[in-house]
Amino acid sequence: MSSSAEPAHLNNNQRDTLLRVFQHPAGHNIEWQAVLSLLGAVGSVEERHDGKYLVRIGNEAEVLTRPTHKDVDVQQIVDLRRMLTGAGYRAVVEELEAEGKEA
Predict the structure, then answer these.
(1) Which of 6, 37, 43, 50 could share a disulfide with 57, CB 3.0–4.6 Å?
(2) How many structural domains compose the chain?
(3) Segment 46-59, tens digit of pLDDT
């Protein structure tokens, strides 16, 4: 795991959001603002002129659309898992779960 995937730079809320993104089955009450906070801590988030968000984590970039409601939907969770896994954060989640810090 690279040093960029170390959880030390994440605050408690961001760690909780990270754990919830990887929960199975996918949760339906992960707030968009919490996701933006997590993504800003692990990568970069840029709001575009069209109201969408360009997110970069590691070598991946994805354009995300703000959900209609305050919570992200299941497809967004799937996309987040893929991006975060590619950046090494699945291992971080497994480590946190092993330490008993489940959400």
Answers:
(1) 43
(2) 1
(3) 999 998 999 999 88
